[in-house]
Design a protein that fits this description.
CATH topology: Aminoglycoside 3'-phosphotransferase, Chain: A, domain 2
Number of domains: 1
Strand content: 15-25%
Shape: globular
Number of strands: 13
Largest sheet: 4 strands, antiparallel
Helix content: 40-55%
CATH class: Alpha Beta
Number of helices: 11
Distance between the termini: 41 Å
Strand order of the largest sheet: 1-2-4-3
Low-confidence stretches: none
Order of helices and strands: EEHEEEHHHEEHHEEEEHHEEHHH
């Protein structure tokens, strides 16, 4: 019951006996990920060996959460995460740096990635219609975001790539294990935005790696219109509704989570293959338009 891994060119994973070996050609990436294990101890596997380009941990006997999730298991995960998503008290200087990191991570990176998408796929900001709905240009939607509000995040312990393909559940041990944690948050190894983890989880509930791997989607961009279709697992749709309610009942800002989710799709569109890239762009823009139109 292996996860659906959407491969990246500079990374590799090998399963050798009872060991998982993760490789990257980026030495800083590996070093930072290894360093963060102490911050995430008890939630991620223990790394027992590492070199400049790789690290090893023992295979975890558990199921990939996206394959077996039920609403009770999701409730269990949310309860478990209360002890993981621990807020950190920052002084004024640290808080200013944190907000600046959020701004860089959300605004600057999004603008760079959207331009990279246009360059990679020879497109421009001319998608006037998405699935038949007329909407403004993407640059207008991005300009309208209150970036100061969005970058006023929740400083704390973070995973950074928190979605069901990176979460294992052992029914026998009644234990969750988190995999493939992000190496940093805009360069910071210990303080990230917990809202980003919320958005990462939301993005994986809406777009599931298994659905993409099985080509259960379509996307076409022609004459200023994007048309896309995406199959969704009912269990994940139910988890999304549950998660929306959990965010609100826990006192968090649902609009912030969903706008960040839209930005995640726009960010990763440039990094994936065609036509999945078009789906991500179209979905991201449509979601940003819809969520931005809602009242705070």
């Amino acid at each position: 019951n292996e996860p659906n891994i959407l491969e990246k060119e500079n990374e590799a994973i090998w399963f050798i006996g009872d060991t998982v070996v993760k490789y990257s050609d980026d030495k800083t990436f590996i070093a930072n990920r290894v360093n963060r294990v102490s911050e995430l101890k008890g939630f991620v596997p223990d790394i027992y060996a590492y070199r400049s380009n790789m690290y090893c941990y023992k295979i975890v006997e558990a199921e990939v959460l996206s394959n077996i999730v039920t609403l009770p298991i999701f409730d269990n995960l949310m309860n478990h995460c209360k002890s993981f998503w621990v807020a950190k008290i920052l002084d004024a200087k640290q808080n200013e740096r944190f907000k600046q990191n959020c701004l860089i991570f959300y605004k600057d990176k999004t603008l760079e990635r959207v331009q990279l998408f246009y360059n990679n796929f020879e497109q421009s900001d001319d998608a006037v219609f998405i699935n038949g709905e007329k909407m403004p240009a993407l640059n207008e939607l991005l300009d309208a975001i209150d970036w100061n509000w969005l970058s006023d995040g929740l400083a704390g312990r973070f995973h950074g790539d928190f979605h069901f393909e990176n979460i294992l559940w052992s029914q026998e041990g009644q234990k969750f294990t988190f995999l493939d944690w992000r190496q940093d948050f805009a360069g910071d190894l210990t303080v990230g935005d917990i809202y980003y983890d919320f958005a990462k989880l939301m993005h994986g509930l809406i777009v599931n790696h298994g659905i993409i791997a099985n080509d259960q989607y379509s996307a076409l961009w022609k004459d200023g219109e994007i048309k896309y279709d995406l199959h969704r697992k009912q269990s994940l749709v139910e988890c999304e509704h549950k998660f929306n309610n959990w965010i609100v009942s826990s006192g968090y800002d649902l609009k912030k989570v969903r706008i960040l989710t839209a930005l995640i799709y726009l960010n990763i569109a440039a990094l994936h293959h065609y036509p999945y890239s078009l789906l991500l762009y179209g979905l991201g823009k449509k979601m940003l338009y819809k969520e931005s139109s809602k009242e705070l």
